[in-house]
Structures are given as structure tokens and as C-alpha cells.
What does this fold into?
Amino acid sequence: MSPSAPALRVIRPGASATVQDTGRYGYRQHGLAVGGALDLHAFNWANSLLDNPPGAACLEIMLGGFQARAETDITVALTGAHAHIELNGSAISQWRTIALKAGDELSIGHSDCGRILYLALPGGLNSPEWFGSQSVVPREKIEGIDPISADMYLIANRNIGTTAHREVPEAFRPNYREELTLRLIPGYQFNQFSRDDLLRLTTEEYELTQQSDRMGFRLSGKPMKEVPPGIISEGIALGAVQIPGDGQPIVLLNDCQTIGGYPKPGVIASLDCHRLAQRLPGQTIRFAYTDLADAQNERRLFNSFFRERVSFENFEKGM
Amino acid sequence: MISQVSENTLLICVAEDIRDDLPGKLRALCQLMESRRWPWLQDLVPSYTSLLVVYDPDQLDFRQATTAVRQVLEHWQEQSVPGSQDEPSDETRTIELPVYYSEESGPDLAALAKACDLEVDEVISRHTAITCQVYAMGFAPGFAFMGEVDPAIAHPRLDTPRKQVPRGSVGIANRQTAVYPVSSPGGWQLIGRCPTRLFDRNELSLLRIGDKVRFYSISREDYLERGGEL
It folds into this structure.
């Protein structure tokens, strides 16, 4: 198969499926969102299973409901949210490679634990790159950078046919049902909130609402009572916690707008943003305060784990 | 002035209040940062009074990032001293944007005029009389927050935002004005439509922070000829 030949034909894209890599940097001055995979943990594992270059574009499937047919013999990898997966009608597991023969049908049911699945193709998914990234931000409606629709072909950057089976070790598969504590790095507006409100933020439980998407997650709980007035709009960081007038926090994620003017007690550690992105409406979360240096160290360890695990074989030999 | 925001961002606040000299200065600051070609600098987000700096935490920590940024700020402040020989060379551009003002293209035009106790023609002449400045980019690709409009036509945004505002719509929100580069939800008071493409996949955003903008009135025919849609 030539490197750019179709690997899979999409039968059903599900609720929403988009191509995502690690995002678009350097263009927020133009009003473009960063985009990029919402959960880099499951995303990195999907690429690792195929020895893909770090950050290679994958298909990000929201809430499952996806179905595709193999156009050629090819091994793909599937990680992320738990759903009922079928290969030609027979149930199979995930967090592993899946060897497909031409004509095979891969079907992903609706996710019942977790929100996002990543489907990786060998060498990465080949799709148009604009502004240094293949990531698709649907709300920006930029011509030619669209979500996946039925009958589209997914193209792999390389293919050596079907390859040996691999699985992500059990210990690295998260349970997205587990209760999650989001670690908040206090920001410079922290002291503008009342002590009672700041205490409330870390002692109460918050529920994820239906209004949660790639832009951000709205939470619902005991509202903050004395929300400071809005600020002059300023650049927004991934994971910023906005408190609008109703006192209910919104955690901003990859597709959020570039600037905003709601007051913010702080920003969620990026690794917790990935964990949050996998949670479904109705699940509860808590906040806890953390330190910037801790968050930075943890993030570096996460990055080096995936960067330095040179190949999956090395990893299996006991890294 | 420099605050740590997240693992990979810091915020430089250059002033407490919005001032019309800030967009140009912030643009110069962005250019100064970019000219250093730091491999760890990932993104810059200028806004009214601040600049968000995104760095790669694998390459340096927040103390090192702060130190590097502080050095640039010192250089920038020296440049910003009035009468300094070392002014940033990038000239401020003035961009003219045609607008078809009408009730057909601006569904809030009549109501806004009434609310401001003005004739519709007066609203148009006041909107075209000013030279605006781009204070911030955001909301959507190519969306420029411009100010400041004549206080006589300043009006708060709609209580309930529209689900869909057509591409090119020209709106007013308090003392700001903007053109919607793509159709999107929006709550600004719509007074007309502009046929000019504000964002292009290849050219990126037409407007940049610090640019001056003047609006001028065009006819329905002219609007359609320039590719405007109704």
C-alpha cells in the first residue's frame, strides 16, 4: 500500500469525531484556539502502541458510536473511554492494537465509562495540516478543516500490514469512573475572592453538567456567593477556572476562546484537565489547591515518560 | 506585573486600565519577544492591557521563563520612553472596511437608533466618523475587538444572544465594535454587514492588535458586488 492510500472508510462518525494532534501554537494572536487532543494520556498510549512519532495525529471519537471498514490489511490502536467494541460482530477489548484485514468492520458502541476514545493509525493519521497542526476546532469553521463525516476515508502515514499484538499494561489504564480531584494552581486573582468562597470551592462537591464539550466543562454545585466583578479580558490558559455571575465554575479546555473576562481563582493542572475531559455529565469532582512547581514537575515526568520510552518493546522489557 | 498562571503560561500586565496607546505598545512587545527566537516560546496572546506568554515547560521552569521575559520587558520599557530613538519600526496600518448599513443587514439598527434617541442615518454617520483601534483579538479566528465608538451610539449587548449571527455582521457592544468573521452565536447589536473577508486560511487574520480601522458606508448593490451575502 502506498503511504497515502486509504486505511479505513468511515461508516458512522458517532456524535463527533475529529482529527487531533497536540494542538496549534503561535496563532492565538489571530484568534485561533489551540485545539489538540483533550486527553493526552490515552492519546499518547494510542500512538505508543504503534510506535508512532510523539504527537502523531489520531482520531478523537467523542462518546463512541463510531463504525468503520478497513480498506486494506492494517493494524490500528484503540484507547480511552470504555465502550462495547466489535470486530466483525464479535466483542473485543481495547487499550490494544487491533489487526484488521481488508473488509473487516470495526464498530465502537456508545461509551459507558469515559468520554473520549483515540483511534491511532500507523505513522499517524494523514490529513490536511494548517497553521502547523492537523487539529480540527469545529466551531471555527475554517474551510477544509472539518470534523469526520460518513464515507470519509482515513489515511495512514505508513502501513506495513498487520503487526504483532500489543496491549497497554493494566496498571496504565485509568478508571474514568473513579472520583477525581482537580488540583487548582491559585492565580493572581485568587485573593479577590472571599475566604468563604475559596473554602467552599475545596470543600464542596461539584457535578459535571450536560454543557461540557471541547471548549470547557460547566460544573454545578454550591455556588460561590461573592463573585468579584469581571476583569479586563485577557489571554486564557488551558484549565482556567472561570467564575461567571452565577457562581458556578467553568473549566476551560483546548477549544476555548483565546481571551476572556470572567474572574478566575486559578488554573487546573494540565494532567487533571486530561482526566476531567474523560468524565461524563453527572459525575462529581472536587477541587484541591496545589503548587505551581508541583504541577510543573508532574507534567515534565508525564512528558518524559512518553518521550523516553523509546519503543514499546523496551517498555515491555520492564521500564 | 508578571504573574504565574499555569504550568506553561505567565501573564504580563502592562496597565491597570484600558488606554488607546496600549495596543501599539503590546504589539511592539510581541514583536520584541518574537525577535528573540526563543525555542521555548510557544504562543503569545495579547489583549487590552496584558500579554499571556505560553512556554514549553520541558525546556525551562517558571523562574527561568520569568527571568527571560523580565529582560525583554526592561528593553521594551526603554523603547517605550517618549521621544526614544529606538521606537519599534512596524508602522501602524489603517484599514478601511466597507459596511452595508440597513435594517436588512443589521437587524438591530432601528432599535438601537431608537434606544439612543437618534435617526438611523445619524447612527451610521457616527459609526463611520471614528477611527477605531484593534484592542484585542479573540472569540473566533479574525474577530477583532475595536474601540472606542461614539458614546452616543454605545449600547449594551443583547440580553439573549442570537444562536446564529451571519458572517460579516457588524455589531456594537457598549463602546466596542466588531465584525463577525464567520457565522457564530453572538450577542452584539447588529447594524450592518461587511463583505470583506476578515480571516483567510492562507492569509490569516486581516486585522492585528494596534491596527486602526475606519468604516465607510456602501450601497446594497456595492455590497453584493463585493461578494456580500444577504
